[in-house]
Design brief:
alpha+beta, 9-stranded mixed beta sheet, elongated, Rossmann fold
Length: about 650
């Protein structure tokens, strides 16, 4: 059975009567706030639709009757708790014969209806009049108009007393605003001049912004209730606020804004700076984008974006507020063609300015592969046949730090490189909980100082203390990864464990997979490690990308192509029925094309296409591994460019074939 609803016919009749007479009605909760589902846009959800309103009050009979102020009307809210009755009487307001209704608080508080005398109105003049006449520091009279708050109509019941609001005489016409009152309402507050400290000698764009810009420039559409907007104790009110004021300027000398109204795009948890507000209100909470816009302002000092954000304390995770303050960027079909293409740091595998996950079961080789990628990028060497873009790497070692020196030296020795060849490689030793604000801020400082192109977090479990299966916890972690990405423009790669069933993907909440750009899975079978792309937003790379094996080398071990086999092993080509090794097939094909004067190829994909043209079907991963083997052996080489040049068979390659 459904719940029993007691419908008050007096309330329902009033709602429908008001609507038929043109009053725009807003369904309000018993606490006076707009109903979140029935009035999702606050007073802007007001309606005169009788059928809709009837259904609302039948379903929710305890709703209060809110009303949006008519366009040509203002309403003065006299709050006697702040002395408004004394001030209104002293002003001569009681002599105005106009439509008025009283609050159900039954203390004499009332709403006075008047014709709107002008567009730009404020209660600043009323407050100043009260101060000048020794009647307090404010008038207690609030202003309501079409785009500022709303009124509550009779016979709604006051949430504190349970008593009904009531009309003094609803039939009275709405009077014109007297001239003396109009003068007070159009009086504007003195505007504070932009202030710059004469002794400020630094280059911080944030300090410059705080000194140069006013809250009145940032709080667009807000009303200054008290003060000059900058001095301690200044009060501001948001257009959708239901209270006399929504925020105040701090008195601690830091000029921060403390917001206590939930009806704003700003957070209420703590005081915020002008830059915080600028980012949230104008740039959807994206501090990096706000910083770029701030740097374009006249007179802004030139500065470095990553360092600035770190010095300022790092990005703020105002998720709800970001959504409220979001902005759209709409591009035409022609403009979208001008967007930059993906910037790969390992061709077709991971790209800059992205989030990636590498997952696999314990012992599948996740860390071996992540370290190989890191060192390949730091040195600018290809990862097998995938070209890399040389850059800086910060590798966060959550486990197994003692074995890193041997792994690094084995990798260098295997490729004939020295430590000087990986100057951009940095290791962060020790696992910390990145969900802790202080720890995360410290990491932001580290990455800001080094500006890496790749950040590896190995592993997720070692760097978080959270429930991996909880979607909210996982989303918070993803947000932190995204902040690292936005501050540096790097690829942030998380090494993670698979679940009990490897084929079902990474362990924990699917919020991780849904948020990343790239997801790569590792599996191990009888010593062969297979890398598979399970999600790639900007690459056609799918299926088995690379097959590898882990082989001892010197005092450590290295990953090599699965085609590098022991002497007694051989790799047959399934579709060709030949026992010839894949690398030999490719080498012979390239040599034949080169001798015939045919155009050389520049990628392993082209090699796969050429092989298919002659009826040889070979897995792309095997081709990639074979080309890595041929390149390492000096049998083929790129000509013209180390990563994008055409492949040519070397003299050593021709000797290998004879």
């Amino acid at each position: 059975m459904g719940r029993h609803r007691v419908i008050d016919p007096e309330i329902l009749n009033a709602v429908t009567s008001y609507a038929r007479r043109g009053y725009e009605i807003i369904p309000l909760n018993p606490n006076k706030s707009p109903h979140s589902e029935l009035a999702p846009h606050g007073f802007r959800s007001a309606t005169t639709d009788v059928a809709k309103l009837t259904a609302m009050w039948i379903e929710h009979p305890d709703l209060l009757i809110g009303c949006r102020v008519p366009e040509d009307v203002i309403i003065l809210d006299l709050d006697v708790r702040y002395g408004a009755d004394r001030i209104w009487d002293a002003l001569g307001g009681n002599d105005i014969d106009t439509r008025t209704h009283y609050s159900g608080r039954n203390d004499g508080g009332r709403h006075v209806w008047l014709r709107r005398p002008a567009e730009d109105l404020s209660t600043t003049g009323l407050d100043r009049w009260a101060v000048d006449h020794g009647l307090g520091d404010k008038s207690g009279i609030d202003l309501l108009h079409r785009d500022l708050r709303y009124t509550i109509l009779p016979p709604s019941r006051h949430p504190e007393t349970g008593k009904a609001y009531y009309w003094e005489d609803e039939t009275l016409p709405i009077a014109d605003c007297p001239e003396w009152l109009t003068k007070l309402l159009v009086e504007r507050p003195e505007r504070a001049e932009p202030r710059e400290r004469t002794d400020y000698q630094g280059e911080s764009i944030f300090e410059w912004f705080e000194h140069r810009h006013l809250w009145s420039e940032i709080l667009d559409g807000w009303t200054l209730v008290k003060g000059d907007g900058e001095n301690p104790g200044s009060l501001w009110r948001h257009p959708d606020a239901t209270a006399p004021h929504s925020a105040s300027v701090s008195s601690d000398g830091k000029n921060r804004l403390y917001v206590y109204s939930p009806n704003t795009p700003l957070p209420t948890e703590t005081g915020i700076s002008k830059f915080d507000a600028y980012a949230l209100m104008g740039h959807g909470g994206d501090e990096a984008r706000a910083l770029e816009a701030m740097r374009e302002l006249p007179g802004a000092p030139s500065t470095s974006a990553p360092v600035d954000l770190i010095e300022w304390g790092g990005p703020k995770l105002y998720d709800e507020k970001r959504e409220k303050g979001s902005r759209f960027s709409i591009l035409s079909a022609r403009e979208i063609l001008e967007l930059d293409p993906p910037d790969w740091i390992i061709d077709d595998i991971i790209e800059k300015d992205s989030l990636a996950v590498l997952y696999g079961a314990s012992g599948s080789g996740k860390s071996w592969l992540a370290i190989d990628w890191a060192l390949s990028i730091a040195s600018g060497r290809d990862f097998f046949s995938h070209s890399t873009s040389r850059g800086k790497v910060l590798y966060c070692i959550g486990e197994g730090a003692a074995g890193i020196p041997q792994r690094q030296m084995a990798w260098l020795d295997h490729r004939g490189l020295e430590l000087d060849d990986i100057e951009g490689m940095f290791w962060l030793n020790g696992s910390e909980n990145l969900m802790d604000d202080g720890t995360f801020r410290a990491l932001l400082k580290e990455v800001g100082e080094r500006s890496p192109d790749l950040i590896v977090i190995d592993t997720l479990a070692r760097y978080t203390l959270m429930d991996e299966n909880n979607a909210s916890d996982m989303q918070r972690f993803v947000d932190r990864l995204d902040d690292l990405r936005r501050v540096t423009g790097a690829c942030v790669l998380v090494v993670h464990h698979s679940g009990k069933e490897v084929e079902r993907g990474a362990r924990g909440s699917t919020a991780l997979r849904a948020s990343v750009d790239t997801e790569l899975g590792l599996s191990e079978d009888e010593g062969t490690i297979t890398l598979k792309a399970t999600k790639q937003k900007n690459s056609a790379l799918t299926g088995d990308a690379v097959r590898m094996r882990l082989r001892s080398f010197g005092d450590g071990a290295v990953l090599v192509s699965a085609l590098v086999l022991d002497d007694e092993e051989e790799t047959p080509v399934a579709s060709g029925g030949s026992a010839e090794r894949v690398d030999q097939i490719i080498l012979r094909l390239l040599a034949e094309r080169q001798s015939a004067g045919e155009e050389a190829v520049s990628s392993t994909r082209e090699i796969k296409n050429v092989l298919e043209d002659v009826g040889v079907l070979i897995d792309q991963g095997m081709i990639n591994g074979s080309m890595a083997l041929l390149s390492d052996a000096g049998l083929v080489a790129r000509v013209g460019h180390p990563t994008m040049g055409k492949y040519e068979v070397t003299d050593a390659g021709y000797r290998e074939l004879t």
